[in-house]
Amino acid sequence: xxxxxxGVTDIIRKAVMEDVSxxxxxxxxxxxxxxxxxxxxxxxxxxxxxxxxxxEAAMWKLRTxxxxxxxxxxxxxxxx
Length: 80
What we know:
By secondary structure, the chain is an all-alpha fold. The protein has helices at 4-16, 36-50, 56-59, 65-78.
């Protein structure tokens, strides 16, 4: 079983087709060149992978990989 950080990083890497070594918690999503379609795909992949629901409006405000990891952790903590 992957950690949340590994799972989020893997999903983001697949969405932007970047080598995982370039993606760190402090990496800004804008630096990855993620467009809006890739962001939507990423949100859907995260929800499916972690069996959670993410607030889509809140996801648009996230700026770094670490903020995405924290959002997934919060959703996991709030899940029944």
